[in-house]
Amino acid sequence: MASQTTCVFRRRQITLLLIMLLPHLFLDAVGARQCFWPSPAPEEAGCLSWRVMVEANNARGWRTVPPQCVGYVRGYMTRGQYLRDLAGVMEQASAYVDEVAVDADGLDAWVLDVDDTCLSNLFYYETKQFGAYDPSAFKDWASRRACPGIPPVLQLFTTLLDKGFKVFLLSGRDEETLGPCTTENLEAEGFSGYERLIMRTPEYRGQSSSLFKSAMRKQLVEEGYRIRGNVGDQWSDLQGDCVGDRVFKIPNPMYFVP
Questions:
Q1: In angstroms, rounded to a whole number, what is the distance separating the alpha carbons of residues 186 and 154?
Q2: Signal peptide: which range, if any (predicted)?
Q3: What CA–CA distances, in Å, run from 24 to 30, 32, 186?
Q4: pLDDT tens digits, one per residue of 5-42
Q5: Vertex 107, ends 101 and 110: CA angle to 5°?
């Protein structure tokens, strides 16, 4: 009898101990979860939401990166996440290229934007704290022929040429002032063998990028080309007439081009 009483007493003690410890175990588990999935700082969370709106084309017409997000954008562009996101886009584009049969008539085409698609302007915009577009300052920067090529896009470009696509580079840069230096910069960074570099001529000055690029793509289609793919860092590269069978948006939270 004494032995049974002792066992009952011990069970009650263990039960009471568990009741007392359960809240602490729960809190420890919550704490561990929070350590494993750290919550972003409020400012960073707000800037992440802003960047998602930019990429989803819900944030339009903005002229500069919000002041509180300058550090966030710099970190995004320079600490690896931009390159990881870009690699994901290029993987999707490459998988699509593998699926497309190229016709022997030589009219299957791709359109690639230039600035921050083929050539990077990160150094320029970082120096300006991602401020408003300055035509004179950008002209000076582009004239140096020092824009680095973007390796994952160059790899896609080479794949397209190897498979037999005609590649057209379509840029909103002014042809009269930046034509030669842009051609030399592209060549120096490995972008050679494309079908044509199309730039903004005097009759299209002052026109939005969306309208200009739409008109240029329409001309290509009228020439008989089939635009099988289109790559750009701005939504204005990928909207309007004759955008192509598929479009691929490269991330860019540095500036907005209408």
A1: 10
A2: 1-32
A3: 10, 12, 62
A4: 555 445 555 455 445 445 554 444 444 444 444 455 55
A5: 75
pTM of the model: 0.83
Alpha carbon 120 to its chain centroid, in Å, reads 12
To 5 degrees, how large is the angle CA 178–CA 184–CA 187? 135
Q: Are 128 and 79 in contact (CB under 8 A)?
A: no
Q: What is the pLDDT of residues 225-248, one digit of tens each?
A: 999 999 999 999 999 999 999 999
- Residue entry with tokens 């915009």: 125
Task: Answer whether CATH 3.30.230.10 is correct for domain 88-249.
Answer: no
CB 203 within 8 A of CB 220: no
Between CA 79 and CA 37 the distance in angstroms is 19
* Domains of the chain, residue spans: 88-249
Instruction: Report pLDDT digits (tens) over 66-109.
Output: 999 999 999 999 999 999 999 999 999 999 999 999 999 999 99
